[in-house]
Amino acid sequence: MMIGDITLIVVLLLILIGSLGIVLLIVFWLKSSYRQKDLKIKELQKEIEELKSKK
After folding, report:
1. pTM of the model
2. Alpha carbons 7 and 41: distance in angstroms, whole number
């Protein structure tokens, strides 16, 4: 019985760790894509201001 209980606990722990890892990866990926969009928006705003000042 002991070996079965230990393997069950190990499998459950691995599932928990794996799901946490996937969630963290998704969160970091979303944050990085939002950062890239923010940078692009700031660059476009600078270009718009430069074009307005030229006129």
Report:
1. 0.51
2. 51
